[in-house]
Automatic annotation (TrEMBL):
EC number annotated for this UniProt entry: 1.3.1.12
A biological-process GO annotation: tyrosine biosynthetic process
This protein's name: Prephenate dehydrogenase
Keywords associated with the record: Amino-acid biosynthesis, Aromatic amino acid biosynthesis, NAD, Oxidoreductase, Tyrosine biosynthesis
PROSITE patterns: ACT (PS51671), PDH_ADH (PS51176)
Source species of the chain: Streptomyces mangrovisoli
GO MF annotation, one: NAD+ binding
InterPro entries: 6-PGluconate_DH-like_C_sf, ACT-like_dom_sf, ACT_dom, NAD(P)-bd_dom_sf, PDH_C, PDH_N, Preph/Arog_dehydrog, Prephen_DH
Superkingdom as given in the UniProt entry: Bacteria
Domain Prephenate/arogenate dehydrogenase span(s) in chain numbering: 2-283
């Protein structure tokens, strides 16, 4: 692939464009809001000048409700040899395109299973898709050349291609993305009118559970509108677990010993089932989950602190596998948790101490 056109230069479009530019592809950027395309260009994601002729691949990264119309327009104008979209739902856009009577041999629906709770080009990074699954949904109509262009994009983004049927994809993401998103919003919604004295105690647990609740509701209404049935089915199961859990907790409040035992069993069952599901969540790069050791560093809330820690870890030859930051309530300080391979933890600890960092347990 030598040339690409990214239409919709928000988080996902600009991240893909950055990855393509890094691999030497000439990328043109377009957005119905020209300011977004200009910002993406200023970030080094390509040029916001229109291409002079058809590009090799058009990547449509607009919100799901606009995908079919944007693709249809691009196809009718002959902007590219191959076309793909990255929308979070696949069945709906494909049906809309079919209904428009377009020749779909030059199109393939795709979905990178990676994103952020922030929108827009300023949230984009060229490594957003590294090691993540990227679903491709070819049909009998899809040209091999177009499938190959899509595989090239996935490879340039260092993602892992996964081929699926569009409707099977939509059922799968209802389970691993759409239902969890709503549950996260429901937990976060409890905080809206909560006492400040309670909210200020928020720790890492609630941050993990509510991070995605910060996402743009306009994008998510589009996604959920295109996949309501499977998500409603899953939430029905969640509601039944909730009812059981409430019953068990009420039993725990009882003065009756037998009822309390019943309650303990009910809650234990829920927590144990949770453990059993959680261990199935794949680790980084789609591999089995790994156990890292955590090195905790106290930092001042000042610019450049994280960059210095990463540089010092690099000098010590230690790869940081994951990182979390916990801000101390009411103080200009925070704790950085650096997750590393167990054998690297003492090496990193010693190196950071020697460089003057304060380590915590
Ligand atoms: N955010 C995620 O985590 C994530 C992950 C994977 C896939 N996706 C999918 O990627 C797509 C883009 O999501 P995002 O998070 O980058 O959103 P975003 O809001 O960051 O960017 C969307 C961009 O599309 C532009 N746009 C809107 N309508 C348009 C139109 N008609 N023509 C051209 N441009 C238009 C907007 O101006 C905006 O710049 C969506 O289809 C979404 O389902 C999102
Ligand atoms: O990590 C996040 O912020 C995301 O919400 C990413 C996430 C997901 O649920 O995994 C969200 C929607 C996309 O369609 C794909 C990825």
């Amino acid at each position: 692939m030598r040339t690409a056109l990214v239409i919709g230069t928000g988080l996902i479009g600009t991240s893909a464009a950055l990855a393509l530019v890094q691999r030497g592809v000439t990328v043109h950027l377009a957005d119905h809001d020209p300011e977004q395309a200009r910002t993406a260009a200023a970030l080094g994601a390509g040029t916001d000048d229109p291409p002079q002729g058809p590009v090799d691949l058009a990547v449509v990264a607009a919100p799901p409700a606009h995908v079919a119309a944007v693709l249809a327009d691009a196809m009718r104008r002959g902007l590219a040899r191959g076309y793909l979209d990255v929308a979070s739902v696949k069945g709906g856009p494909h049906r809309e395109l079919t209904a428009l009577g377009l020749d779909l041999s030059s199109y393939i629906g795709t979905h990178p299973m990676s994103g952020r709770e922030r929108s827009g080009p300023l949230a984009a990074t060229g490594d957003l898709f590294e090691g993540r699954p990227w679903v491709l949904t070819p049909t009998r109509d899809t040209d091999t050349e177009v499938l190959n262009l899509a595989l090239e994009l996935v490879s340039h983004c260092r993602a892992v291609p996964v081929v699926m049927d569009a409707d099977a994809h939509d059922r799968a993401v209802a389970l691993v993305s759409h239902m969890p998103h709503l549950v996260s919003s429901m937990v976060a919604a409890r905080l809206e009118n909560a006492e400040e004295s309670a909210v200020r105690l928020c720790g890492q647990g609630i941050r993990d559970v509510t991070r995605i609740a910060a996402s743009d509701p306009r994008m998510w209404i589009d996604i959920l509108s295109a996949n309501p049935g499977p998500v409603a089915d899953l939430l029905t199961d969640v509601a039944s677990d909730l009812e059981e859990t409430v019953r068990a907790l009420r039993a725990l409040q009882s003065a009756d010993d037998a009822k309390r035992v019943e309650g303990t069993l009910g809650i234990t069952d829920m927590l144990t089932r949770g453990n059993a599901g959680q261990v199935r969540v794949p680790g980084k790069h789609g591999t089995a989950p790994r156990t890292y050791e955590t090195v905790v560093v106290l930092i001042d809330d000042q610019p450049g602190q994280l960059a210095r820690i990463f540089a010092d870890a690099d000098r010590a030859g230690v790869n940081i596998e994951d990182v979390r930051i916990e801000h101390a309530t009411g103080q200009q300080a925070g704790l950085v948790q650096l997750m590393v391979e167990p054998k690297a933890a003492p090496v990193l600890g010693t190196a950071l101490r020697e460089r003057g960092w304060a380590l915590r347990q």
